[in-house]
Amino acid sequence: xxxxxxxxxxxxxxxxxxxxxxxxxxxxxLTCAGCGRFGPFAESHVYHRAPxxxxxxxxxxxxxxxxxxxxxxxxxxxxxxQSWHIPFPSTRSPVGCAPQTSWTRWGDCTNIAVISSTx
Length: 119
Ligand SMILES: [Zn+2]
What we know:
9 strands, binds zinc ion
């Protein structure tokens, strides 16, 4: 039998990333630092047979994220994604914001959290 690198979709890595980051990463949308593709984490290509987990862009194969677990630590490398857009649950208000039914002003109270390596 031939040995080949096969990938699965982002859902396969959801458990490991959720354990470290504390939220369901399949709801996040990532911007690839390689090609600028904006797409759901769930659509990314996951290689989990290497030591650790490698998440790659389905558009250009750029590494979006890496997660390696040792017996005592977790190493997380997110620099391959320019940004992560994470929808907050609608029932939860962002810290420091008064409860509202909709959030419209960017930079004030939004329903999107952005983690970016470029800001
Ligand atoms: Zn890409």
